[in-house]
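Hi there, hope your week has been kind to you so far. For a while now I've been wondering how a particular protein folds. I'm sending you its amino acid sequence along with the backbone structure tokens. Could you read through the record and tell me how the tokens relate to the sequence? Take your time with it, there's no hurry, and the full record follows here.
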Amino acid sequence: MRKYETLVLLNPEMPAEASQTLIGGFTGIVERENGQILAVDDWGMKDLAYPVRKHLRGHYVRLEYSAAGNTVAELERIIRISDGVYKFITVQLDDDYAPAAAEPAAEPVAEGGES
């Protein structure tokens, strides 16, 4: 099985419980098809670069999972026919993919020279 990441843009006016139900359905499809959910990240409301269906904001959710190719096809089919999903994209991750750890902030450099 390979690792995949699907980023979903949801209707910003969708109630929270409806979006959670929708995402739960997506994760259920992966698990039903013998896949494994690795992460579900709810990014919340974000500004969009351009209007999508007359909205300037959208609710982003990221799914990371390990599954077979036919599972991805079924998940995308369900996403396409789901109400409230504006856009989505699925990418295949490298087999040795590991999320990058956040880098610590750089120390501010003091102005002026040494005395």
About this structure: DSSP finds two helices and four strands in the chain. Helices lie at 16-32, 69-81.
